[in-house]
Design brief:
about 350 residues; alpha+beta; Glutaredoxin; four-stranded mixed sheet; three-stranded mixed sheet; elongated; transmembrane helix; Protein LOW PSII ACCUMULATION 1, chloroplastic; LPA1-like
Length: about 350
């Protein structure tokens, strides 16, 4: 449950009395209730933190009562969520020398700027003194070199910084994706991150008719998709429950078992899935009602996406099997990262 405050100041809480039935007891456990740790609002200009504690004034504790307990939350004026430390660490691992390059770019910019200022003062002195007129061409040449160096390294720095921000944004989206939940069977729900290094997920998102057609078109590739560690996540946008028709005849029992395994994963907490999917469509410039697919690498990063049905034949042709003689050498051959 997200907790958002839209009050002008914290002091206004002191004028509000708690409900008459509020009676906090030590038996209330914060583990029974899940609160979103961060809520971003635009009213406050500074970060305010609250934590559940016996010393918390009653005027604040009235916000939760009965079987609820106040967990830590933050109200911030930030326009967008901050990048997590995990995403920053992954960015450093993927681009270990980027910070070094950016440091040297800044150093060269500072050096060129200082040299340009010195050359400018020399130019002004030469222009003011006719006896030094022969020095002007050399000073202008040095000034041009300094300004050219500043422009070049400024361009390189901003390009590197833009690449860093784009990578952080992508890693942050991938981290959000890894936290989404899947139902493996009736009694087991796991986050996507558990499947890293185990399966290559293909997310099919669209109306029920789109999912059913993708299900039917995958039948000829079932065995080869499973050999490559592919598991499909059907995300229906217009129904809450999907009913696939499997052939239960005894002579095709083996292929039916494999098809059930290929399509066994079910998204849960559809609000979170829909919010994540809408964000991806917005960033890609795709309309919200378009059926799409996303193909993930073995490490959980997005390797391919598009509007329409998943290219089952291309997945079979491009992805190496997860078992066999060459599996260890080809584990990273999942395709480039988007």
């Amino acid at each position: 449950m997200a907790v958002s405050l839209f009050t002008p100041s914290i002091s206004s809480f002191n004028n509000i009395a708690p409900p008459p039935h509020f009676s906090p007891t030590p038996s209330h456990n914060a583990s029974d209730f899940k609160f979103r740790r961060r809520s971003y609002c635009r009213v406050h200009r500074k970060t305010v933190s609250f934590s559940s504690s016996p010393r918390l004034p009653v005027s604040l504790r009235f916000l939760v009562y009965g079987r609820r307990n106040l967990a830590n939350f933050i109200c911030s004026a930030a326009d967008k969520p901050e990048i997590s430390s995990t995403a920053k660490i992954r960015s450093e691992v993927l681009s270990p020398f980027r910070s070094v390059r950016m440091f040297f770019y800044l150093t060269f910019i500072a050096s060129g700027t200082l040299g340009g200022l010195i050359a400018t003062t020399q130019l002004l002195g030469a222009l003011a003194n006719s006896s030094r007129a022969d020095e002007v061409p050399d000073i202008l040449e040095g000034l041009g070199v300094d300004f050219g160096a500043v422009a070049l390294f400024a361009f390189l720095y901003f390009r590197e910084n833009n690449a860093k921000n784009a990578q952080l944004a992508r890693l942050s989206r991938e981290e959000s994706l890894s936290n989404l939940k899947l139902r493996v069977d009736q009694n087991k729900v796991i986050p996507i991150s558990i499947l890293r290094g185990i399966a290559r997920l293909v997310i099919c998102a669209g109306p029920e008719s789109f999912i059913i057609e993708a299900f039917k078109s995958s039948e000829p590739f079932t065995e080869r998709l499973l050999e490559r560690g592919v598991l499909v996540v059907p995300l229906a946008t217009d129904v809450t429950t999907l009913n696939f028709e499997f052939d239960d005849r005894e002579e095709v029992k083996d292929i039916t078992t494999k098809r059930k395994r290929l399509w066994r994963l079910t998204p849960v907490y559809m609000t979170e899935w829909s919010a994540w999917l809408d964000e991806q469509k917005k960033l890609a410039g795709v309309t919200s009602d378009s059926p799409v697919y996303l193909s993930l690498r073995m490490d959980g990063r997005v390797r391919g996406s598009g509007v329409g049905y998943p290219p089952w034949n291309a997945l079979v042709a491009q992805l190496p099997p997860v078992k066999g003689l060459w599996s260890g050498l080809l584990d990273g051959m999942d395709g480039r990262v988007l």
